[in-house]
Amino acid sequence: MHTIWKGSINFGLVNIPIKLHAATEDKGIKLRNLHHKCHTPIKYEKVCPQCEEEISNEDMIKGYEYISGKYVILSGDELEPLKDDQRDKVIDVLDFVQLDEIDPIYYDKTYFMSANEGGAKSYSLFREAIKESNKIAIAKVMIRTKENLAVLRVYNDVLIMETLHYPDEVRGTEEVLSPQDVKVTDKEKKAANMLIEQLTTTFEPTNYVDRYRLQLEELIQTKLQKEKDITAPTTGKDITDLMSALQQSIDEAKESKKKETTKRKRTKKASSS
């Protein structure tokens, strides 16, 4: 499994060397944009609209747009001191809370955590302590250029880290239309609760599939097979390997030549008589 980050968990005076791995993957089928005329993939270039020049990463700097078209320019030398070198490699445990205290709206990305070299004992200790406490750890970690709030917990006997949105990143609900003054009768609520009861089951993730993706995969495979059928040579006979194909071609050529020779002899004999 690909490692995307290496560091350690700071748990009091205990240091746990770990590696992070992406726990999920996007299985969505990515379709390329092609030129209709020649089916060539469209190229997206970094072009300055002012200078009308294509630019490289080295030509770019960071800037914050405070009003439309106006920027505060921030150099790499100015940004670097804002990062603590040690925090770049450490997951700092801050608190422990109950899992159900965190609303799912705060959850962002999930990562598996594996023990790095020399960390097997401390990793196991931390995992077992969390399992027995029935709590999860609140932590902070710097990934790339963002200081993330995260939770550490156990899933299938593996430590995982789930990054969280900060409270100011979760939008308020004030502008969401949610009727409050509509009267609902007891009879209607009872019927709705009966329907919920009828649909209540145990959550089994494998029961749910991405039907659109499966149908798209089937469509692609069907069209791909048609393309193969069109471009494949049609000999009318099964050809299992190159040698048999060559031998079959030789035999057919001999047969064709033999028929042509016989035809010529018959034509010559008919004309002489």
UniProtKB/TrEMBL annotation:
Gene3D superfamilies named among the record's database cross-references: 2.40.290.10
Composition-biased stretches (Basic residues): 260-273
Listed GO biological process terms: DNA recombination; double-strand break repair via nonhomologous end joining
All residue ranges annotated as the Ku domain in the record: 52-181
Family, as annotated: Belongs to the prokaryotic Ku family.
The protein's assembly and partners: Homodimer. Interacts with LigD.
Protein name: Non-homologous end joining protein Ku
